């Protein structure tokens, strides 16, 4: 393609405070429609908003974690627009004096590090929720007034894959901070994307389109890919890209026009008259900064240093806060200095089982101590093989039993009886003449096929190292 891609992301994060932004209504998810509302969040005449202290603290914490400069002097503004899910006909947001500016977030693509600028992190309240069904539209105002952060990136993202990585890293940081559950199905994390293209080498930005209605990070990536291709076709055919808001249809895998894109002037921003400007003291910012936990990037670097993990392994194990904590308990419980066997089991067999259950490794019914007991048994290479170990692991997850109990109940202990294995080796050599000939002619890998056949005959219970030694010895006399 003869174009450069320019993407900017606007991410809305719903914070998990107990009450709403400016009133005492509960933020609990899943309650009866319109049961968590009051005169303040519904905008009744004479009602006055009061800022939720936790909302401010959580917002500052996120801004600091994203390397932003927190403004000591800030204010709220009214953003005016008219829609059925907005009972006040305006949204309390921030405009020219946002909470914070000039942050950044680092991503990695194919071993290449890139820094994406963050324009601002600001506070605002959420709107309600429209439910369309059977020719009618219903509105639930429970979500009205929920505390939101809007995190706006600089237009420095150059591909759908970069956007995907940015979102994953951002979600990981917010989850580590424990300020939001980031559940896209509940609407706790939502993303709009602005995308434009320009001829390679041009400096001026192209006409952008805003993409909405994307309910997963994969959907963001797919929608961006489609829109980039669509804009390229428009320009190649001599047309002009129109600035508009587009909806992504995941079933049809294409975008549809929703409306022309609004600008700031359309919202008629003005200072919120019921909330005076306020100052966040340097001392308060410092206190909040002290309570920021070790974040994913820092934890990744520490895992590499303390446990000798590769960058890839450390990255995988530190993406999720709970999974990282589980992995660290496993590393500490494993006595050997080399932690690679533990990492292999966490990223390999256990992750596969957890993924099949649509869970993280920390959510499985398996204590770190029990997992390490299994790994030790496999590492001894005399009790059970790696293959048997994987089946034992699955049984441990399903039943909660220890490895030793399962091995005993199912008689899975490894066979190291030389005479028994010699008989099996003779059978394997007799039944696989072609592989025997391959091995004799110098194809070293043929021995692994023969070992595999012997393992089958022993139902996976043969000591693989001893089986290989016996096969090699037997083959010398063939």
What does it look like?
- This protein has helices at 53-65, 160-177, 217-236, 282-290, 296-307, 311-318, 321-333, 340-356, 368-379, 386-399, 403-409, 418-431, 433-440, 446-457, 464-475; strands at residues 3-14, 69-70, 73-74, 77-80, 90-93, 100-109, 112-125, 129-133, 136-140, 147-153, 189-199, 209-212, 244-249, 254-260, 270-271, 278-279.
- By secondary structure, the chain is an alpha+beta fold.
- The chain has three domains: 3-288, no CATH class; 296-409, no CATH class; 418-475, Arc Repressor Mutant, subunit A (Orthogonal Bundle).
- The strands form four sheets. It has a nine-stranded mixed sheet with strand order 2-6-7-10-1-11-12-13-14. A three-stranded antiparallel sheet has the order 5-4-15, with no helix packed on it.
- A hairpin with a 4-residue loop joins strand 13 (244-249) and strand 14 (254-260).
- The longest helix is centred in the middle third of the chain and has 20 residues, at 217-236.
- The model has no long low-confidence stretch (mean pLDDT 90).
């Amino acid at each position: 393609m003869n174009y450069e891609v320019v993407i900017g992301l606007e991410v809305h994060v719903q914070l998990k405070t107990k009450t709403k932004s400016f009133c005492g209504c509960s933020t609990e998810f899943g309650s009866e429609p319109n049961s968590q509302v009051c005169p303040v969040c519904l905008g009744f005449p004479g009602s006055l908003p009061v800022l939720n202290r936790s909302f401010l603290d959580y917002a500052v914490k996120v801004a600091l974690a994203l390397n932003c400069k927190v403004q000591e002097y800030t204010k709220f503004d009214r953003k005016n627009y008219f829609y059925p899910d907005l009972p006040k006909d305006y949204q309390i947001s921030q405009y020219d004096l946002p909470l914070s500016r000039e942050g950044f977030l680092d991503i990695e693509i194919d071993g290449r590090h890139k820094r994406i600028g963050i324009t601002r992190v600001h506070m605002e309240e959420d709107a309600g929720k429209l439910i369309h069904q059977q020719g009618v539209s219903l509105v639930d105002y429970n979500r009205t007034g929920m505390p939101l952060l809007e995190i706006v990136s600089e237009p420095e993202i150059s591909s759908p894959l970069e956007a995907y990585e940015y979102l994953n890293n951002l979600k990981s940081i917010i989850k580590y901070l424990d300020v939001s559950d980031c559940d896209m199905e509940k609407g706790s994390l939502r993303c709009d994307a602005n995308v434009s293209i320009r001829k390679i080498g041009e400096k001026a930005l192209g006409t952008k389109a805003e993409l909405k209605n994307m309910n997963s990070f994969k959907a963001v990536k797919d929608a961006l890919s489609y829109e980039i291709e669509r804009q390229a076709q428009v320009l190649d055919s001599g047309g002009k890209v129109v600035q508009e808001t587009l909806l992504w249809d995941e079933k049809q895998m294409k975008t549809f026009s929703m409306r022309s894109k609004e600008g700031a002037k359309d919202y008629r921003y003005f200072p919120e008259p019921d909330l005076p400007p306020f100052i966040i003291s340097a001392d308060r910012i410092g206190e909040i900064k002290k309570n920021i936990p070790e974040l994913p990037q820092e934890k990744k670097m520490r895992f590499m240093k303390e446990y000798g993990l590769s960058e890839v392994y450390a990255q995988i194990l530190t993406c999720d806060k709970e999974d990282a904590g589980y992995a660290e308990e496993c590393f500490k419980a494993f006595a050997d200095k080399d932690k690679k066997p533990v990492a292999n089991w966490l990223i390999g067999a256990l992750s596969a089982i957890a993924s099949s259950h649509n869970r993280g490794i920390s959510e499985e019914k398996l204590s770190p101590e029990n997992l390490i007991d299994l790994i030790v048994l496999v590492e001894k290479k005399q009790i059970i093989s790696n293959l048997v170990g994987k089946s034992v692991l699955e049984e441990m997850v399903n039943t909660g039993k220890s490895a030793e109990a399962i091995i005993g109940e199912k008689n899975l202990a490894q066979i190291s009886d030389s005479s028994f294995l010699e008989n099996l080796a003779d059978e394997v050599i007799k039944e696989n003449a072609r592989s025997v000939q391959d091995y004799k002619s110098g194809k070293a890998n043929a021995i692994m096929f023969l070992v595999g056949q012997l393992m089958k005959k022993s139902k996976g219970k043969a000591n693989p190292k001893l089986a290989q030694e016996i096969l090699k010895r037997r083959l010398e006399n063939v």
